[in-house]
Amino acid sequence: MAKALLGYVGGSDPRLLSEMRRLQQRVQDLESELVRIQAENDALTAAASHDRIMESVDAHQAEPALT
Questions:
Q1: Are 15 and 21 in contact (CB under 8 A)?
Q2: What Cα–Cα distance (Å) separates residue 13 from each residue in 2, 8, 61?
Q3: How far apart are CA 10 and CA 4, in angstroms?
Q4: How far apart are CA 19 and CA 21, in angstroms?
């Protein structure tokens, strides 16, 4: 029954195996791209957070340094 569910009977179809390998490679490529984009997003989020912190500092109201 398992063979019928997978769409073949009596052995592995080379075209099916080739397609399965191609799809597995595509999934790996997409997973790698996802990791790269998530890292880039994290870096951009950190930079944006840093910029907001720097904007909240009002240099005109800052006290002069002690000498």
A1: no
A2: 15, 7, 75
A3: 10
A4: 5
> Tell me, what amino acid is at 20?
M
Residue with tokens 């569910």: 5
For residue 6, CA distances in Å to 3, 17, 19, 32 come to 5, 12, 13, 28
Q: Which two tokens stand for residue 8?
A: 């073949």
What is the number of alpha carbons within 13 Å of residue 30 lying toward its C-beta?
6
How far apart CA 49 and CA 26 sit, in angstroms, is 34
Is 0.70 topped by the overall pTM?
no
pLDDT tens digits, one per residue of 16-32: 889 999 999 999 999 99
Q: Which residues of the chain have pLDDT under 70?
A: 1-11, 54-67
Dihedral angle over CA of 25, 28, 34, 37, nearest 10: -70
